[in-house]
């Protein structure tokens, strides 16, 4: 099954090239993108099954033997991230197609959107599969280029300004990462992750600490951890709803994945564990306090995104098998739930004409289905039993109690407080946007009002932009993927036991390190 490992990167890139050639045929573009992402989901699921049975799957790209060539490694952690990310990108693509068709393609020009979206997918998959630091850097740069294009779709002043901030911050983190790569190569003579395991262990402790700190700084900016997260709430909410959703679900998690991979494989038991715990606590609390202060749903969700990154760092900082397993479980949960909530926010904006809480009201009566699509993942995000959010937080709390240290207990208390404040923030959104009476400025449903006169007869308009205005009834192609992600979030609760077992196996392999190293170098590292 090793030949399947490069496909999650190769297929989206080939699909991007094909959709670019089909720029004048939107229908063909849509089918190519859907087919490619559906195939990526199938390949990722196969890799997850095979890596669980056979151990890490390795491919030396171009036949060049490691460490000279590029190595792609699909272990349980990478394969699990591939399955979740590919499933989410497929659902968001369907959502964006529904939005583009309803809007007459004005908001998301498909000739640009589909190739860029597939390139973004390839970058995410490449980052998860990368077996060396430089290829990981390449994956991040692919993400940067594609995400800038998606973030500035429509070329409005607000989006260009937000995109500029995003690019400057991303380039800064990439520059720090590149400098760290140069220092690592200078000190060890290699960038291959499996080979770095032995060579970094042989370095003086102070030098290892410098290298570890540089990598953490670069990945911390990309993961939007406090105090490196100020750029995110000003960047994500300005983009179209599907772009915001896929950014929130995936891009910060690639940074978290890089932290997990390097901290466990390259710097196990490092001196930064306490620092990670402190940063995790500050990220949780500052992020959720920012969310409580917001009066716009998108910005509120952006701050909850920052806040809940802290839970993942909590598990990594504990450096225990249970803590790491809970962190992996929580990453899977958060990718799904945060994406769902941003898609629901897009539906709120479409139905209510805004995401500003002071201009909304009565959505539960006007659109009961929309109310359910927001309410269920919101409870999951807040960690209400028995949802997967509660189970992930319970695992982290148990790991913190087992650790018994002062910082661990502070994180336990901080995590519980953050969960309560998340519930408060979500309840406030529900009360203002869904429960109270409709705001006087909210548009009425326009489905039966938008008419044209044909041959002297007034008839409902059925053109491509029929729903391209506030108050329009929600298109089915936007509702269906949101429902699918809500169901997926509920499914995480149903299969929480097997999923946590899988996360535990992945955590054990990460902490042992030998399965990864032996898969890349069966005869031992050179």
TrEMBL record:
Keyword list, A-Z: Cell membrane, Membrane, Transmembrane, Transmembrane helix
Predominant localisation class: membrane
Native source species: Micromonospora humida
Cellular localisation: Cell membrane; Membrane
Name under which the protein is recorded: Na+/H+ antiporter subunit D
Residue ranges crossing the lipid bilayer per the database entry: 6-24, 31-49, 77-98, 110-129, 135-154, 166-187, 207-232, 239-260, 272-293, 300-318, 324-348, 369-387, 407-427, 477-500
Family: Belongs to the CPA3 antiporters (TC 2.A.63) subunit D family.
Record carries keyword Membrane: yes
NADH:quinone oxidoreductase/Mrp antiporter transmembrane domain boundaries: 130-417
Record's bilayer topology term: Multi-pass membrane protein
Source taxonomy: Bacteria, Bacillati, Actinomycetota, Actinomycetes, Micromonosporales
